[in-house]
Specification:
The complex is a heterodimer of chains A (about 50) and B (about 500).
Chain A lengths: L2 H6 L2 H40 L1
Chain B lengths: L1 H17 L5 H37 L5 H16 L8 H4 L2 H11 L4 H17 L13 H11 L4 H12 L5 H34 L9 H13 L2 H9 L10 H11 L7 H19 L1 H12 L7 H26 L10 H34 L6 H9 L2 H11 L4 H15 L18 H10 L15 H20 L3 H16 L1
Helix pairs in contact in B: 2-22, 3-10, 5-6, 5-9, 7-8, 7-9, 9-16, 13-21, 15-16, 17-19
Classes of the chains: A mainly alpha (about 50), B mainly alpha (about 500).
């Protein structure tokens, strides 16, 4: 994606791209969260065993 | 570009789905991969945002035009300062009609409003160089005591105490104060009328030429023209949701143009003229109940020739009786009205005189209006003359309004203000040329007139339930043309509003 390419888009296309990028951001965030959850689950199991 | 992004996302998801997460090491690798993607995505977001900002910045940087605000302030000051209408006497110019009616209505349930309007009355006499004192209230000792307190600056609480103390002895307190004020006005009417005549002359001499009343319509027209094409005002209408971008889409605008115009007949000047005529016809429909009543009054206006002076003579006689009765009672006992046995006879006479005087004053409002009709209207007076006369006479408006519609006082007052705005300081081309008593088939006249120019305004579009929608259509076309003149870009406005929505959601 370049500045020049963006300048060529009309407003509707531009806002569409913006929305797509925001959705992708949400996807990345949720994948990160999932990873954290897996980590937490594993930590809990480890702690449980030691108790 | 969107397709490229979507393809990339698809590939990314496929990779992410198969990446192992069992070990800490695997998870860290996946996390790093995601972080890299996040950085790239954020970079793209900022780049898109920069481009969006570049496009909507001219809108964000818009500011109100100070010249327009200055013009509005000047115009407002002029409106409130120069009630020089030929249809109103000092009584209306001082707003006594409005204040006294509101005192009467408030006296049913709100003493502090009664006091508020009484203070306004005292103030409006003061502005006209007439100081009202306690002793001017000579119809009753109770009335003079109450007004003495109010003029002396007593608080609402102190006045309530007085009111409670007096009420059971003299329930007609407020009504008596009202007619006493009317009487004070009549006694000073010549002086007060002269004050307003001098004031109007003074204004015309001192204000700059372009602000003189005769040019006010032109001034208003220029102001409106500037406002209608002002970028900040237009943008604000979209921002605040008053207007919608969809209303001005090509498809909607084209369908409206095709509904009313041929290709040759569509132009801005025609739109403006048509809009004015529709508005004028709308006024005829909106104020039909007033115009019908005025037709009746106008057709028998000669009957009103001496009715005001007769009513004033009767009032003068009754006032003399009432003032004498009040004085006689004061001589006997300054503080107690009904002490002695023969007071019963006195009380009977006093109450009768008071009751009759209140009735006469109620009727005087009507006679005062009839007198204005007699003095200022002719059998060929136009619809505009008649509406202007009504817009200067609050009491006539209220009494006719409540005969035809049901509303609370606040709504009635608002509607009266609306009438004043509708009628004054606007340019008219139709209702100022048609006599009220001339029964023209208006719908047919308007429809035929525009047919000649290739403009389709069928009679059905001028009915009571369709005229507003027809006016809206034409006004939206005018707005569309004004937006074009302002050089604002509707696509950029839409982009701004869309961004606003996204930001709001976040």
């Amino acid at each position: 994606m370049s500045k020049e390419e963006l300048e060529k888009l009309d407003n509707k296309e531009l806002i569409d791209i913006y929305k797509t990028l925001l959705e992708h951001k949400e996807y990345i965030d949720s994948e990160m969260e999932k990873l954290e959850e897996v980590k937490e689950e594993k930590d809990e199991r480890t702690t449980g065993k030691s108790l | 570009m969107k397709e490229q992004l979507e393809n990339h996302y698809k590939e990314l998801k496929e990779v992410l789905d198969v990446l192992p997460t069992k070990t800490k090491n695997n998870r860290q690798k996946k996390k790093d991969y995601l972080k890299e993607e996040e950085q790239e995505n954020n970079k793209n977001i900022y780049m898109v945002l920069d481009e969006i900002k570049r496009r909507i910045n001219p809108l964000i940087n818009l500011e109100p035009n100070p010249q327009i605000n200055e013009m509005i302030n000047k115009l407002n000051a002029y409106y409130s300062d120069t009630d020089t209408s030929v249809y109103s006497s000092a009584y209306e110019k001082m707003h006594l009609d409005f204040y006294l009616y509101n005192i009467k209505e408030s006296s049913k349930d709100n003493l502090s409003d009664v006091n508020k309007y009484l203070r306004k009355v005292i103030d409006s006499f003061k502005k006209a160089n007439l100081i009202i004192e306690k002793d001017d209230f000579d119809f009753s000792t109770y009335a003079s005591d109450y007004m003495g307190l109010l003029i002396g600056g007593a608080s609402d609480e102190q006045l309530k105490e007085k009111f409670d103390e007096v009420y059971w002895k003299f329930p007609e307190l407020i009504k008596t104060i009202i007619i006493n004020i009317q009487s004070i006005y009549i006694r000073s009417e010549k002086k007060l009328n002269k004050f307003f005549e001098d004031y109007a002359k003074h204004l015309d001499k001192t204000l700059p030429k372009e602000e003189v009343r005769k040019n006010i319509i032109e001034y208003n027209k220029n102001l409106k023209k500037q406002m209608h094409t002002d970028k900040w005002i237009i943008f604000d209408n979209f921002k605040t949701g008053k207007w919608s971008v969809n209303t001005f889409s090509k498809a909607v605008i084209d369908s409206k143009i095709n509904k009313y115009f041929t290709e040759d007949s569509y132009n801005f000047e025609t739109l403006i003229n048509l809009s004015k005529i529709l508005f004028e016809y709308y006024l005829i429909i909106k104020y039909d109940y007033l115009l019908k009543d005025m037709k009746e009054k106008l057709s028998k206006k000669d009957e009103y020739k001496d009715s005001m002076s007769k009513a004033l003579d009767e009032i003068a006689k009754l006032e003399k009786t009432l003032v004498n009765l009040n004085k006689a009672n004061n001589k006997e006992s300054k503080f107690k009205l009904f002490k002695k046995n023969n007071d019963e006879k006195w009380l009977f006479n006093y109450n009768n005189a008071l009751k009759e005087l209140i009735e006469k004053y109620d009727n005087l409002d009507n006679e005062r209006f009839n007198d204005v009709v007699y003095r200022t209207l002719l059998s060929d007076s136009s619809i505009l003359d008649v509406l202007r006369l009504i817009s200067s006479n609050y009491l006539y408006f209220v009494s006719t309004y409540i005969k035809n519609k049901t509303s609370d006082l606040e709504t009635i007052n608002k509607e009266f203000e609306e009438l004043r705005e509708d009628i004054n300081y606007k340019e008219f081309t139709m209702i100022n040329s048609i006599a009220l008593l001339d029964d023209k088939p208006m719908k047919e006249v308007i429809s035929s007139r525009y047919k000649l120019e290739g403009i389709n305004i069928p009679e059905e579009s001028l009915e009571e339930n369709t005229i507003t929608s027809t006016m809206n259509d034409i006004n939206e076309l005018i707005r569309y043309e004004n937006i074009k003149t302002s050089t604002l870009n509707l696509d950029d406005i839409e982009l701004y509003l869309e961004m606003d929505k996204i930001t709001d959601r976040k």
